[in-house]
Amino acid sequence: MNQLEDKILHVTKAIERQVDSAIEQIENLDVNDLESLRKQRINELKKREAQRNEWLSLGHGKYEELAEEKMFFDITKQSKNCVVHFYTNSSPRCAIVDKHLKILAPKHIETRFVKLNAEKCPFLAQNLKIKTIPSIVLVKDSFMIDKIVGFTQLGNRDDFTTEIMEWRIAQNGVIDYEGDLLTPPHLQEKKSKSSGKKIRDGAYNNDDEDLDIEEYALNRDSLKSGDSLSKVQSTELTPEEAAELGLDD
Question: The whole model's pTM is what?
Answer without folding.
Answer: 0.62
